[in-house]
Amino acid sequence: MTQVAETLESSTDKALDRDCTTLSRHVLQQLQSFGPEAQDLSALMNRIALAGKLIARRFTRAGLMEDVLGFTGEVNVQGESVKKMDVYANEVFISVFKQSGLVCRLASEEMEKPYYIPENCPIGRYTLLYDPIDGSSNTDINLSLGSIFSIRQQEGTDLDGEAKDLLNHGRKQLAAGYILYGPSTMLVYSIGKGVHFFTLDPSLGEFILTQENVKIPEHGAVYSVNEGNFWQWEESFREYIRYVHKTEGYTARYSGAMVSDIHRILVQGGVFLYPGTLQKPEGKLRLLYETAPLAYLIEQAGGLATTGTEDILDVVPKQLHQRTPLIIGSQQDVAKVESFMQKGQ
Ligand code: AHM
Ligand code: MG
Questions:
Q1: Residue 332: CA atoms inside 13 Å, Cβ hemisphere, count?
Q2: How many CB atoms lie within 10 A of CB 44?
Q3: Which residues line ligand 1 (CB under 6 A)?
Q4: What is the mean pLDDT of residues 122-133?
Q5: Residue 296 confidence (pLDDT) above 90
Q6: Which of 224, 261, 285, 324 has the most ligand 1 atoms within 8 A of CB, as the residue to mutate?
Q7: pTM
Q8: Whose CA is closest to 219, among 292, 149, 302, 142?
Q9: Ligand 2 geometric centre to CA of 326 (Å)
């Protein structure tokens, strides 16, 4: 074979290999096993990917279809007005796990109690926790949104249906990640072996590996926070904001969808903040569906996530829908915020 032919062949091989690194194959590669645990995790990720594709498809055509955008007129367990897309996305996750034999329970930000799939329960040893649509306020205006997911092993029989075993710290998560619905749809995940980016190739209908072992920079210029809450924050936190205003090299970015903001920070460094307020010291974000999965991911990428006083992954919730403040991102930037908050104690 000539050298030109060899080079052509090897670049075709590389391109094919890249196109074949789908999510399920990647999970198996990571675990270096074809055993039942590895097969389960691979199948779980595959179903989450299907949910992401269905939701992305609906978002892409939302403006062209009847009855997709806007509110349902109902209020969810969080006291927030429910959008039609919240309901759709919540149901998509339930639907993709029916008849899977994998997941007995799903717990979501949108449902007061976990949803049980009885036909899966005798063997389904996993629980899916999720925020079907993160950044709901962006839904009707065609801006970036996300879905957040986390997988935990079911502990005990849960015969009373109270799902008490879920009231446990975030280090119990087996996998976590998010789907980002932006100009392209991305799926970012970790099973405790680094953080990996997949991009949906619409022509294939598959998420293909685009970046492996992503590491968050130790420091970045971005701080991402809703400064409209300035006068509702503790003075120590206000001092931190004054510090970034006065110090050269900081820049603000806030999209209204945490998944987008944290994705930017994961790639470019910086810090995302949703602290408590004087009236709501627990903040807005939910531990089991939002802050713990994102903390797991950012720690896997070498960053930090804290409430200001405690690592997010160490927080043990007292109830399913418990909220926590969140300071998450590059090591140096999170440490800087903490240093201000500790002065206030
Ligand atoms: P949601 O899951 O109901 O959309 O709420 C979470 C979202 C985050 O994505 C975003 O960072 C935050 O709420 C925005 O809240 P606020 O409008 O208070 O800044
Ligand atoms: Mg959310």
A1: 9
A2: 23
A3: 80, 131, 134-136, 226, 256-258, 284
A4: 90
A5: yes
A6: 285
A7: 0.94
A8: 302
A9: 13
